[in-house]
């Protein structure tokens, strides 16, 4: 059985840890508070850090909604555990769902790899192996990995980032209750962070889209799929509909949904 947890990192070159969910103890042996403030490379294998910095650079430069990175994380007792880390780029933070890989042939590992924007597997020798994600090819991946450093001398991101917000959703209720939200939800859909907490996601989804959204969320819960969802969000302040594009992935500690305004909308 897969065990998993959620992490949030800041958007600096160091990727400092801002949040860790409780299930990290089951995976890596640490208490969440032991890792807060640590750099994102702290738990990684020294032989893989250079490759991971290249992948990190690409994720930030291209603002990927979902990228699966497979590499080793150090357990508190000193041994290493292979993990699938699904990186969701979300404006000023990186939100990750982390899954211990029982074996490379496990079905959920394959499902994640087939449903992400990009897939990188860091080998023990520090090389990067790319997998065939649905919208990429080997030549494109080589180009992405060659892109320039996205941070300034102070390790802060240079270019303005696309507005996005994140919701953590209680996976153990059919109502999809929101338990956490990031600040950008106010700008994009007119709802405050505090105002969303405790509310059902479906109360904000246009009636015509609710069944489809619910179906894709349940699919993500049951299969490990990184679900891609498009729907109209009904603003509570003025009743307007906002076309939203989102991805979601699911852990024991909750479902993570990253959303942005759908620039391809014809409305």
Automatic annotation (TrEMBL):
Gene name, Swiss-Prot/TrEMBL: PARPA_07445.1 scaffold 27627
All copies of domain PAS, residue ranges: 1-63
Cited InterPro entries: Circadian_TF (IPR050933), PAS (IPR000014), PAS-like_dom_sf (IPR035965), PAS_fold_3 (IPR013655)
Designated name of the protein: PAS domain-containing protein
Domain of life: Eukaryota
Origin organism lineage: Eukaryota, Fungi, Fungi incertae sedis, Mucoromycota, Mucoromycotina
């Amino acid at each position: 059985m897969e065990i998993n947890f959620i992490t949030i990192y800041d958007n600096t070159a160091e990727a400092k840890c801002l949040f860790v969910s409780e299930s990290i103890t089951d995976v890596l042996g640490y208490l969440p508070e032991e890792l807060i403030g640590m750099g994102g490379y702290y738990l990684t294998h020294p032989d893989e850090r250079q490759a991971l910095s290249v992948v990190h650079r690409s994720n930030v430069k291209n603002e990927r909604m979902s990228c699966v990175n497979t590499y080793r994380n150090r357990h508190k007792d000193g041994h290493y555990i292979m993990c699938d880390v699904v990186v969701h780029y979300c404006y000023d933070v990186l939100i990750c769902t982390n899954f211990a890989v029982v074996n490379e042939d496990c079905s959920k590992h394959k499902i994640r790899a087939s449903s992400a924007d990009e897939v990188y597997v860091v080998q023990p020798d520090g090389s990067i192996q790319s997998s065939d994600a649905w919208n990429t090819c080997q030549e494109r991946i080589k180009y992405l990995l060659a892109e320039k450093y996205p941070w300034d001398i102070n390790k802060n991101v240079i270019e303005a980032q696309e507005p996005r917000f994140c919701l953590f959703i209680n996976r153990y209720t059919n109502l999809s209750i929101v338990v956490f939200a990031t600040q950008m939800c106010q700008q994009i859909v007119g709802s405050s962070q505090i105002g969303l907490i405790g509310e059902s996601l479906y109360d904000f989804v246009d009636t015509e889209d609710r069944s489809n959204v619910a179906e894709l969320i349940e699919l993500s819960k049951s299969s490990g799929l990184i679900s891609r969802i498009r729907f109209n969000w009904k603003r509570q302040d003025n009743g307007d509909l906002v076309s939203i594009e989102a991805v979601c992935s699911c852990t024991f500690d909750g479902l993570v949904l990253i959303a942005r305004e759908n620039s391809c909308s014809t409305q």
